[in-house]
């Protein structure tokens, strides 16, 4: 198959399908090997008594980080796709400007400001960062849901209507399957961005991979910052490559 045909059908070189496994393997190796990297990182913080977080601590922080992002993603995807579907229906088109502005609101406020406003109402811990991640990640999901549904060929929808399908059947059997790759691209963008943004939760008492970064900033320990940043970057690349493989599979179908 020539390269042009590969791009049209979503078929890629077999090596591309191996990338999710490669990034996940590197992530696991990084968590396991960080305590062994003390000689290499010691020069970044020669006066620090404890340069390296323990392996068990990193495993716990990684799990908590992934869980926080996962809960926020579940809420974001549910609300974002539902809102995008609603404003493409005849009864909801009048609310399109309002939904667009509400979804954009989270991007106009810095996540730190959202956390500062959420803490007095929700207290310290994981809940404020989940609220911030939901607001910050909503726009890509809503926009891509709109773009995907509006990009479905009208003749296909008309053909489904001519076959006697109800509005619900057309949505679930025709429109959403055709729009799925575009919607998934928005979900992918939202989650990948929020993996990095979730590190700010450490400033309000949410234990995650932001802990070593904040500790490094406070104590002037560059090695802590490097450790946290490397694990977060590998986690984001792993998730992004998994979504890339999933998206290509949807395009092929």
In short:
The chain has 253 residues and is an all-alpha fold.
Architecture overview:
With 253 residues, the chain is mainly α. It has a single domain, classed as MetI-like fold (Orthogonal Bundle). It is built from eleven helices and no strands. Helix 2 runs antiparallel to helix 11 (222-252), helix 4 (55-86) packs across helix 7 and helix 7 (126-150) packs across helix 9 (167-197). The protein starts with a helix and ends with a helix. Residues 1-11 have low confidence and may be disordered.
What is the secondary structure topology, with strand pairs?
Elements (H helix, E strand, L loop, with lengths): L2 H7 L4 H20 L4 H4 L13 H32 L9 H13 L2 H12 L3 H25 L3 H9 L4 H31 L12 H10 L2 H31 L1
Pfam families: BPD_transp_1
Family: Belongs to the binding-protein-dependent transport system permease family.
Subcellular location: Cell membrane
Please supply descriptive tags for the structure shown above.
253 residues; mainly alpha; MetI-like fold; disordered N terminus
Coarse structural class: mainly alpha
CATH architecture: Orthogonal Bundle
Q: Could you tell me the strand content as a percent range?
A: under 5%
CATH top level is Mainly Alpha
Q: What number of structural domains do the residues give?
A: 1
Order of helices and strands: HHHHHHHHHHH
Number of strands: 0
Mean pLDDT: 82
The best one-word shape is flat
Instruction: Give the radius of gyration.
Output: 22 Å
Counting DSSP H or I runs of 4 or more residues, the number of helices is 11
**Kindly, what is the distance between the CA atoms of the first and last residues, rounded to a whole number of angstroms?**
17 Å
What about the largest sheet? none
Tell me the CATH topology.
MetI-like fold
Q: What name goes with the CATH superfamily?
A: MetI-like
Uncertain stretches of 5 or more adjacent residues: 1-11
How much helical structure, as a percent, in the residues?
Answer: over 70%
Pfam family, one: BPD_transp_1
Family: Belongs to the binding-protein-dependent transport system permease family.
GO cellular component, one term: plasma membrane
Organism: Vreelandella subglaciescola
């Amino acid at each position: 198959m020539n390269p042009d045909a590969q791009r049209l059908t979503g078929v890629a070189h077999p090596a591309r399908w191996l990338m999710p496994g490669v990034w996940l393997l590197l992530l696991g190796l990084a968590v396991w090997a960080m305590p062994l990297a003390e000689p290499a990182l010691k020069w970044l913080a020669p006066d620090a008594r404890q340069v390296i977080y323990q392996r068990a601590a990193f495993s716990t922080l990684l799990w908590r980080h992934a869980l926080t992002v996962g809960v926020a993603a579940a809420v974001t995807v549910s609300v974002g796709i539902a809102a995008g579907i609603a404003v493409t229906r005849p009864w909801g088109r009048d609310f399109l400007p309002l939904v667009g502005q509400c979804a954009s609101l989270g991007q106009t406020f810095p996540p730190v400001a959202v956390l500062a406003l959420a803490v007095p109402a929700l207290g310290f811990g994981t809940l404020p960062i989940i609220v911030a991640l939901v607001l910050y990640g909503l726009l890509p999901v809503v926009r891509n849901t709109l773009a995907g549904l509006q990009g479905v060929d009208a003749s296909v929808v008309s053909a489904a209507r001519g076959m006697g399908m109800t509005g619900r059947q057309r949505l679930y059997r025709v429109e959403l399957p055709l729009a799925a790759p575009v919607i998934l691209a928005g979900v992918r963008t939202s989650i990948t961005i929020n993996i990095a943004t979730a590190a700010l939760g450490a400033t309000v008492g949410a234990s995650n991979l932001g802990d070593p970064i904040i500790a490094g900033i406070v104590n002037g320990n560059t090695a802590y910052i490097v450790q946290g940043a490397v694990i977060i970057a590998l986690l984001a690349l792993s998730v992004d490559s998994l979504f890339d493989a999933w998206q290509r599979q949807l395009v092929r179908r």
